[in-house]
Amino acid sequence: MPFDTFIQCPWCKTQYPNANVSHCTNCRGTLEYSITSDELGSEPPIAPRVLPTKFKRRIKYTGNVMTLIGIIFTIPFFWTILFPLIGIFCWRRGLRIANDELIPLEQGKATVGEIIDIRKDYTQSLNGESPSIVEFVFKVNGKTYTGNVGNIYESVHLTKKIGDKLWVVYMPEEPEKSSIWPPLV
Question: Model's pTM, two decimal places?
Answer without folding.
Answer: 0.76
